[in-house]
Amino acid sequence: MGLYNAAGIRITKAAFPANAVTDPQKVVTQDIYSTRPYTTPSGDKQPEGSIKTLAYKAGAVLRQSEIDKLFPAATITTVSPATGPTAGGTAVTITGTNLDGVSAVNFGATPGTALTIVSATQLRVTSPAGTAGAKDVVLVDDAGNVTKTAGYTYA
Known about the structure:
The chain is mostly beta strands. The protein has one helix and 13 strands.
């Protein structure tokens, strides 16, 4: 009794042909739901609200790569206005994708204030005071930070 390879050679426990897993499994610890907007087939006016669906039941086993796919990185399409005074206080609208996971917006190294997530494609933030010149706009996102180089200029 034992384990053998295709050539008929016995395999020992120490020589078992396996590699370390780089994509570990995770056990879901609570029920997880996804939501989507409610739509009508005819395209008529949509009632308010969304549909909630069970996505993963507690106890489900997922690979880390599957979890990572559930949290796509944000992107920045526009920063408007892209210029403001060094005193700060400018209401800035950022458009892009997957913005609903953003927890902070930095102008250079300084965090903006009054962050409001409007939708997955738009957020608003108030610019902090800063020194004259172009600053990177950095979205602090749960899928990883995203930077628009020289995205905002203090005049």
